[in-house]
Amino acid sequence: MHIGIAILAIMTLGAIWAFFNEKKLWNNGICARYNEPWVHFDNDSQGGRGYKCRDQHIWISWPVDRLRPVVNRSKR
Question: Where are the domains of the chain?
């Protein structure tokens, strides 16, 4: 029983870590090294999306590239 709960907790924490790691790499669609937008170049068979920027490339499997950036709409 305790082993099952521990395994479930590790899997959950791993998924949360993977999501936030990809979100950090995605950087709202901007390559951190060159400050240029990521350009989509391929999709893999599992639904992951490949992006490149000059000599950099990333593969995104979580929907972080589909999330809208937070916009500050309070102009008071």
Answer: 2-65
